Amino acid sequence: QEFKNLVNRFKFVRVLDSNPQTKVLSLLGKIDDKDAILTAEKTHFLFDETKRSQYNLNFNDSNEDDNNPPIFYHCENEYSCVNGIEEVTEIASNDIYHWGLVLLKQDIEQSPTARLNIIWPASTVHVKRYEKQSYHLIRETPEIYKNIVRPYIDESIAKGKLSWVNEILYEDVEADRVVYKDFSEDSKRDGFVILPNTKWDGVNLDSLYLVAIVYRNDLTSVRDLKPSDRDWLININNKIRSIVPACYNYGVHADELRIFVHYQPSYYYFHIHIVNIKHAGLEDNMAAGKAILLDEIIDNLNFLGPNGYQDKTLTYVIGENTDLWKRGLKDEVEKQLESDGIPKTPAIINTFD
Ligand code: M7G
Hints:
16 strands; binds 7N-methyl-8-hydroguanosine-5'-diphosphate; alpha+beta; 6-stranded antiparallel β-sheet; globular
């Protein structure tokens, strides 16, 4: 009950960000005088669900189920925005248009109101990441990677921000939530774990969000991938698409999974995002300039030279609050705009008053 305890002790300080579109609110607060970040996301509506039938069709009347695949059926969820209505009040009606408010049945397990995430104690890097900020597009050349980004990655790994990854891989933390684990000492290189991302409520398949973390520890990001990693990636891609639909009663199919990596990621240990294609994304999680499809990476490795992604120029979005922006990317953007011949922004005088 550590989570409940932290929620109860959270003392609000200020709002970091509020997004009515994604229905996500991030608050800065204190727990025992240390910074804490609380992020709340209103859960999406449940409507239908795929259930596994208790009765298998058994034509030859034997008890052997081996040759009969399980039967699934589709039905409306009891918590849906029709079945689950408990109270209704009208706002107005006009001609053929009618609107009002409803109260829907909720259940902590099956239909929760919101997902809360707490980071505690939160570092200043965490606080800055969750705070509203301005973003810029940077073209990261191999030189910029080598001179600015790679040293930053090495430093941030040395600071040990990755303990949560090691706890999943080796300490069985979150073990009860693991969807798939393939690990043996002899073939460590091929092993990986799939489990729910902290950004998923774990209930609504429409917003299914999983993360696959590999046992290989020689990859900090997509930048370290080489043509020799192609077969390894193909194998992971195929396994993800075979395993995930089966784990969720085929409520989501292999071609309905958006499988991608982030550049820049928040954590420099190779991991893959797996999201229901219906989920347009929290903030910019799936946006161009942040997400690179795994299929795209696999194909690019056919064309890149032996150094793979190390020789590629990658264009992405970077926030002003990040250390990378301050450690040189800001200057690089200015240089790039100048050498591309993009006119400087003129001084803008505010004439509204
Ligand atoms: P990223 O691309 O490095 O960061 O992905 P970003 O998505 O925040 O830009 C890391 C992913 O791992 C994120 O989607 C996180 O939500 C997820 N994640 C982070 N932590 C600390 C945990 C954790 O402790 N457990 C699980 N299951 N997922 C996590």
